[in-house]
């Protein structure tokens, strides 16, 4: 049998452990903050319960965990008080303040939801803004001729060549804009997003690279226009970097499309002879700048390419599958096989 002293020791230990768990959970529920380093817009649908909402908030970095959020709502008798709508949360918020917003119905008023897919150009984005009655023309003008003050506000823009546009740095994502938003505010929000989702993400891997961020984004934009599969992107990025190293032209249809303003599966021989600095059939090396605004996956592929023996590739026009070849003869055979 346990002695009285032993029993007291065990009970004391249990009390200490329970107390520690209580204070840890209490701190997480009431005082913890999420990891988001920029404002986040979250859409809460009708019927979303506390755990579903908590999951959305947690994934966006607004809060530290969905269960802490659910516990707070439960202890506050607010489990069934969540109001559907779109909400904006600033960084550094604690769960009690987040709960007050979603149960008080403090929705983002008069906001327009705009989605810019990966690989879109500034002109594509301008057209979508205009279609939603926002300042698309002003947006395109500022994107093509960025204000010099932006280089002071965003250090990653300081290496832009003279005359360069913001193409490549307008991060593709889903945004919520007020109906009164200005073009300058739209661009600022997109550059903030690029800083948070790209610059912060690649900082450690990018240190020590011989390539500039401008070169990296330019290559990523070419890769974005060529392939859609993440694993294929890494192979194609490695293939393109290898072509540049070996003084071979990229021969990228993505760059030719940018020069011609077209969107075609295959270009004619005459088109590949187009006189343009963006025509990588005629000019070796990277194009003068990005040919689209690539997503994070393409940027990471350009940063960490996969080495291979492949020299050529094409996309199956029916499935979009990337077909690689090690020799020119094999590539020609693939073109015949896939009707290109």
Q: What does the model show?
A:
- The chain is mainly alpha-helical and 340 residues long.
- It has helices spanning 4-31, 50-59, 66-75, 95-104, 122-131, 136-144, 149-153, 183-206, 213-226, 230-245, 253-260, 296-303, 328-337, and strands at 40-44, 85-89, 111-115, 174-178, 312-315, 322-325.
- Strand 5 and strand 6 form a beta hairpin.
- Helix 1 (4-31) crosses helix 3.
- The longest helix is centred in the first third of the chain and has 28 residues, at 4-31.
- It is elongated.
- The N and C termini lie far apart (85 Å).
- The model has no long low-confidence stretch (mean pLDDT 83).
What key attributes describe this structure?
mainly alpha, single chain, 340 residues, 48% helix, Dna Ligase, domain 1
Oligomerization: single chain
Radius of gyration: 26 Å
How far the N terminus sits from the C terminus, by CA atoms, comes to 85 Å
Question: How helical, in percent, are the residues?
Answer: 40-55%
How many beta-strand elements?
6
Q: How is the main sheet built?
A: 2 strands, antiparallel
Summed over residues and divided by their number, the pLDDT gives a mean of 83
Strand order of the largest sheet: 1-2
N-to-C series of helices and strands = HEHHEHEHHHEHHHHHEEH
Low-confidence stretches: none
Count the helices. How many? 13
User: What is the total number of structural domains?
Assistant: 3
**Helix vs. strand class:** mainly alpha
Beta-strand content bin: 5-15%
How is the topology of this model organized?
Layout lengths: L3 H28 L8 E5 L5 H10 L6 H10 L9 E5 L5 H10 L6 E5 L6 H10 L4 H9 L4 H5 L20 E5 L4 H24 L6 H14 L3 H16 L7 H8 L35 H8 L8 E4 L6 E4 L2 H10 L3
Antiparallel strand pairs: 1-2, 3-4, 5-6
């Amino acid at each position: 049998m346990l002695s009285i002293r032993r029993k007291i020791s065990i009970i004391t230990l249990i009390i200490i452990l329970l107390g520690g768990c209580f204070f840890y959970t209490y701190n997480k529920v009431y005082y913890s903050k999420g990891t988001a380093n920029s404002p986040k817009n979250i859409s809460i649908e009708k019927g979303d319960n506390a755990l579903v909402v908590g999951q959305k908030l947690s994934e966006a970095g607004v809060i530290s965990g969905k269960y802490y959020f659910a516990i707070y709502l439960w202890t506050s008798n607010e489990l069934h008080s969540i109001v559907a709508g779109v909400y904006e949360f600033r960084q550094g918020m604690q769960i009690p303040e987040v709960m007050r917003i979603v149960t008080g119905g403090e929705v983002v008023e008069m906001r327009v939801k705009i989605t810019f897919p990966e690989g879109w150009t500034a002109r594509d984005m301008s057209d979508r803004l205009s279609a939603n009655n926002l300042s698309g023309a002003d947006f395109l003008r500022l994107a093509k001729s960025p204000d010099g003050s932006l280089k002071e506000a965003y250090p990653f823009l300081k290496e832009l060549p003279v005359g360069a546009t913001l193409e490549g740095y307008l991060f593709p994502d889903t945004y919520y804009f007020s109906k009164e938003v200005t073009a300058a505010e739209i661009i600022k929000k997109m550059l903030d997003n690029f800083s948070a989702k790209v610059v912060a993400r690649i900082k450690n891997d990018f240190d020590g690279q011989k390539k500039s961020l401008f070169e990296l984004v330019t290559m990523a934009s070419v890769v974005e226009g060529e392939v859609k599969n993440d694993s294929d992107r890494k192979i194609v990025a490695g293939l393109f970097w290898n072509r540049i190293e070996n003084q071979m032209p990229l021969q990228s249809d993505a760059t030719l499309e940018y020069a011609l303003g077209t969107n075609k599966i295959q270009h004619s021989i005459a088109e590949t002879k187009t006189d343009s600095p963006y025509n990588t059939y005629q000019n070796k090396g990277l194009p003068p700048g990005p040919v689209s605004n690539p997503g994070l996956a393409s940027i990471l592929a350009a940063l960490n390419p996969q080495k291979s023996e492949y020299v050529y590739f094409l996309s199956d026009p029916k499935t979009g599958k990337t077909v690689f070849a090690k020799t020119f003869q094999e590539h020609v055979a693939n073109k015949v096989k896939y009707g290109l």
